[in-house]
Amino acid sequence: MARDASIKSVLVIGSGPIVIGQACEFDYSGTQACRVLRAEGIRVILVNSNPATIMTDPEFADATYIEPITPEFIEKIIAKERPDAVLATLGGQTALNAAIGLFKAGTLDRYNVKLIGADVDAIERGENRELFRNIVEKIGGESARSIICHTMEDVLGAAAELSYPVVIRPSFTMGGLGSGIAFDEETLRQIAGAGLRHSPTSEVLIEESIIGWKEYELEVMRDKSDNVVIVCSIENIDPMGVHTGDSITVAPALTLTDVEYQKLRDLSISIIREVGVDTGGCNIQFAVNPDNGRIIVIEMNPRVSRSSALASKATGFPIAKIATKLAIGYTLDEIKNDITQVTPASFEPTLDYIVVKVPRFAFEKFQDADPRLTTTMKSVGEAMAIGRSFGEALMKALRSLERKEAIFTFPSEVTVQERELLLESMKMPTEYRLQQVQKAMWAGASIEDVYSSTKIDRWFLKQLEMINDQARDIRDAVELDAPTLKIAKEHGFSDQQIAILRASTEDDVRKLRHHLAIRPVYKTVDTCAAEFEAFTPYHYSSYEEESEVRSRTKPAVIILGSGPNRIGQGIEFDYSCVHASFTLRAAGFETIMVNCNPETVSTDYDTSDRLYFEPLTLEDVLEVVYAETQAGPVLGVITQLGGQTPLGLAAGLKAAGVTILGTSPDAINLAEERGAFGRVLAEQGLTAPEFEMAASQLEALEIAARIGYPVLVRPSFVLGGRGMEIVYDDAALSGFISRATDITPDHPVLVDRFLDSAIELDVDALYDGVELFLGGIMEHIEEAGIHSGDSACVLPAMTISDDQRSKIREATLKIAQGVGVSGLINIQFAMADSVLYVLEANPRASRTVPFVSKATGVPLAKAAARMSLGTTIAELRAEGILPTQGDAVAKGISVKEAVLPWNRFRRVDGRGVDAVLGPEMRSTGEVMGIAATFGESYAKSQISSFGPLPKSGTVFISLADKDKKHGIAPAQGLASLGFRLLATDGTASFLAEHGVATVVVRKNSQGTGPMGEKTIVEMLNAGDIDLVINTPVGRGTRADGWAIRTAAVQRSIPIITTTAGFSAAVEGIKALQAGDLSVAPIQEWLSR
Description:
Elements: E1 9-13, H1 25-39, E2 43-47, E3 63-65, H2 71-81, E4 85-87, H3 92-104, H4 107-110, E5 114-116, H5 120-127, H6 129-138, E6 146-149, H7 152-162, E7 166-170, E8 180-182, H8 185-198, E9 204-208, E10 214-222, E11 228-236, E12 249-251, H9 258-275, E13 280-288, E14 295-301, H10 306-315, H11 319-327, E15 354-360, E16 381-387, H12 390-400, H13 416-425, H14 433-442, H15 447-454, H16 458-476, H17 482-490, H18 495-501, H19 506-515, E17 521-524, E18 538-542, E19 556-560, H20 571-586, E20 590-595, E21 610-613, H21 618-631, E22 634-638, H22 644-655, E23 660-661, H23 665-672, H24 674-683, E24 691-694, H25 697-707, E25 711-715, E26 725-727, H26 730-740, E27 749-753, E28 759-767, E29 772-780, E30 793-795, H27 802-819, E31 823-832, E32 835-842, H28 849-856, H29 860-867, H30 873-879, E33 893-899, E34 925-931, H31 934-944, E35 954-958, H32 968-976, E36 980-983, H33 985-993, E37 999-1000, H34 1016-1021, E38 1027-1030, H35 1039-1050, E39 1055-1056, H36 1059-1073, H37 1082-1086
Parallel strand pairs: 1-2, 1-4, 2-3, 4-5, 18-21, 19-20, 19-22, 20-21, 22-23, 35-36, 35-38, 36-37, 38-39
Antiparallel strand pairs: 6-9, 7-8, 7-9, 10-11, 10-13, 11-12, 12-15, 13-14, 15-16, 17-18, 24-27, 25-26, 25-27, 28-29, 28-31, 29-30, 30-33, 31-32, 33-34
Helix pairs in contact: 1-10, 1-11, 2-3, 5-6, 7-8, 13-14, 14-16, 15-16, 16-17, 18-19, 20-29, 23-24, 24-27, 25-26, 31-36, 32-36
């Protein structure tokens, strides 16, 4: 039954930008697919709008289209490339929805292309709630009682029949978008209204509530010969009511009896057969009633899902790779297991360890968002840890999150009052519920008390009790002897936790532990519980006897990854780590990856020579370095590619005698510490906006008075603009300081002069101590004051002169020399009244490296990795990694646009959070448009980032006073393009004075008019508006602007909140009106 010989070329549909509910796990699966298909000699055509993922690099496919993932654009690609088949099961819901769109539009038939991996009927049977219900019933399973609704009347009728609480689930959405639990009619109207809007088919399911039941998932694969394997069982520690992506989960399932587990297996196998998935994987979710064992089938995803990435990393069974092979005709028994090299893929994995996954949230970025966890997914990333017991895996996973709040604490005093409060607050699931449970139990709450508050299974509560007992033993031991210390480490306690319990220091505990020769050994993930030999060194630590790290003779480089995804540190950093691993392997070094993020390419067992799935803390990394030094020569550790996480460890590693490759920790500190960096700039004769450090509130107010408002205030060490604010007066400044002090207690607050309406520029460059190589100068489309990660940017820069360009190059060289960079550096400049200001310099891989590499065809991350081991720019030019002469040149015009998660968050009262950009980064991902003109490129970037610009219709304009003069030209542009313009009083009269006619509409605060004239918000809700331009008034969220912006977000109407974005949109609309947008693969652009 070998592979289907008729398939000679395949179009792989990627998952687009990273959004909440669809993160980098699909980049991992799509990258696997491209690698497998090419290894089979098949021509690979890829469409994906995301520049941050490694799969859109030109070497992963034969033709890579960085274009919007819509049926219209994909049809153009199919017409041009004529593939034999389309593979859409590895790109999340985005790819599946696009494939169904192509099928319904008749594109697949027209070009005679077959869908592989899953057919449309199977997708429909798995995704359509009514069809899936019937299947479950047919095989003898049970679904929750439910009613399908298309209107609000249907919804209210259904709730009356099922009785509250009820669960609302829209059809065909991802990550539970638009779903929720309603306890009364008011919340039902609010959630179901949003659900009807978010569902592409305006269909929601209202079902009986199974809140508090135990939740499980099984990962299943089936081939065309009807072989079925259950890859992994996963149990949610949080009971039903929390989205599985937001729940702490454990693999394998731990609290099922054998009989119950067998029932879930039998149901899963019957379901996958009946649905008809016969060439790939799927994920099936179950709920089990803890009181009587009644099993309900919740849903199935007929594709590779978020849990598939977790199951792959947890078992070592590469689901995406095998799903791809099944899609091109192989059967499970024909596919060899990479790790054992003797067992086939039809051999189910067995685990002799426990895996825990913990989600990472970003509520601090959305101050007014509702922090309660529901069936709509809100987490932005996750960390995974492996241990020999549940306690060990859980403690490692919690410290992998890099959040001090996540780590269990054991305070000396917890009052009875506090304990009762904890028992009350844990009834509502939030980000730190497990920590509340552990603390309440530490304070004496019983397992039964906690169970009645949370419905978390008693077995898990018993495990937490054991951790607390162990903490007491550590605290009360007369001395910290070898047996006490060893048991503590077996339970997963970090040196730091032990130090706090013993009132000692982390350093002292570590010295004592090493003196007593208590160190971890490293075990292997081998898919078969050591029944067969494992050939891939995929390791995790444990405090046991026998280590499985093999000795080696090749010199090794250790690369530190970037840990869990979060806003401000995403997949762009993983991209640089993976490139380093590939390029250093090719250069003859052994590469060793340390990371704890299950969603990424870096934690694939075949990316590096060795993989350690470990937390990125100083203790854990030092132990890996020690184990590898025992195994063979280690050249050093690369810390400058994984973002702030590894950079934060560099100084500690160096102090412990570890060699840091590339830019030294001292140089990094020089650039990060503003006072020191200011001296570097002064020596080089460069200008920075005036700034001073303030150690107290009084000092800050004095500085602000001296520099003059507006000022930008922020703590001194920061990534992703966390805790930055632009303030316009004393009251706002005092408010900021009282909030900011807890961010970095030992670091003062910086007060900067804020450059209003400057052009912001971003530069990525390489420096080897002699020569500078400029990767690119990007110009931000939004003005200064909006975080560079949230601003759209264009490469090449459009508005700077050649003279300014050479000044920027010169300044970059001076800074690189002054700081002492060896490798990558990213510098942000601002140009105000033709003066060049230096805003900040980061001597590390930045989030724009992948975008610049794609726009210019120069692999910056590869070059930086080689440079960290001493290769010069001149040598890299000679090898052909860098151009033989000059700097990088952008091919075409590329626009990067940020994707923001406004639609995921609500305030507690159900209203939206405000969609205004600022100095704090809030985007989860990015897209790229590439074309011959700026307008076309910008239009593509807007389509990809879910805010497609209208070609015609009605535009509403409301500008703050400071923005009105900049709004005249673009408003004239829209009028000449035939749009109907609406505006509120102030903006309308200002535009009229400058010859632009608009229709005046009522503000929300004015209410409906005497003749029933609608307010702007009512018009938005009625769908009368096609585009909203609304710039916020100064600071804070004035009620009118906020109501307009949230109404637009909830109705998915494109909204622009800056005048620079307004001008860019007019260019984009011109391109759309001028005719068809063209498509071309990145390989074609780069060869121009």
